[in-house]
Specification:
Number of helices: 10
Number of domains: 1
Largest sheet: 8 strands, parallel
Strand order of the largest sheet: 2-1-3-8-7-4-5-6
Strand content: 5-15%
Radius of gyration: 18 Å
Distance between the termini: 42 Å
CATH topology: Arginase, Chain A
CATH class: Alpha Beta
Number of strands: 8
Amino acid sequence: MSNVGIYYPLGHQAHQEPDHPERPERVEAIKDRLLADGIWTAIQQTQPVPVPDSVFFAIHTPAHLQRLEAIIAAGGRSDEDTYLTPSSLDIARNSAGGAIALTNAVWVRELATGFALCRPPGHHATPEEAMGFCILNNIALAAQSLIEHGAKRLAILDLDLHHGNGTQDIFYRRNDVAFISIHESPLYPGTGAPEEMGEADGLGLTLNIPLPPFSGDAARDAALKELIFPFLNRYEPEILLVSLGLDAHWRDPLGYQVASTTGYAQILDQLNQWAGEMTDGRLALFLEGGYDLDAVGDIAAAAFNILLGNQWEDRLGPGERPESPRWEVALKRVKNLWRF
């Protein structure tokens, strides 16, 4: 048995709506692939813990919780995209509790690293609003738990297709959590401009890297080397938390990025190596988006193989559409703003 952890959300199937892209099969595709590849039995299962009120209400307001309970009681929706079933709030709490348990174990070195298969996802959930398929902000709650355990400087890197507006909002004025997002723009939710750099104590601790449609592996690798690593080296976090959205893959139906499994794997391999040198290996991954089941399974399997130190395989290959070179202008704009 390895020292790599996984959180799998038991009972998550009760949170579903017919024909919705955020569906149980997303996580089941990952589990099936890990079982088929012999990875499932090689990693440690992490059990969720209750989310302490002190952690919950440092991230989400009491009004947020009350609104969720009222929507569920009325049989409604939080917004056009975000459904709630009678079981959704309990499942979301369970997901956050799994994220917290895995992250705390990595922090105290009970686990070398790990991947929380959070469902529902969380990075769009703001202090007061469930949106974009997200109910509670899993990665923010995990970060806050670490702070209660003595962490002083954390970094969150969001690799999802969409900007992590909720996570940004939560930490925008704080200096204990730096936030980085690389995302497609223009695209939902319409936030994440390079000029959004933080405020008050958090000024200079939010780095947004918007990429135009049809950006892919070259754009994301350049962003990592020319912007993300310099930013992280300057901040010197004690742990790196990654919102691992898998929807920048060329097969994903909700966007127009052309990243491949190979591109994802190379980024994760570099992040894992960086964490080994800079954070004593403290690295935790959290599932966000990703809606093509083949791509989700392929990237997740590659991610676990990287954490385990194994070889990985890109079974889907590159997409047919070539990567647009327009990302070079977008990256130059961010570099000039930050003077990297």
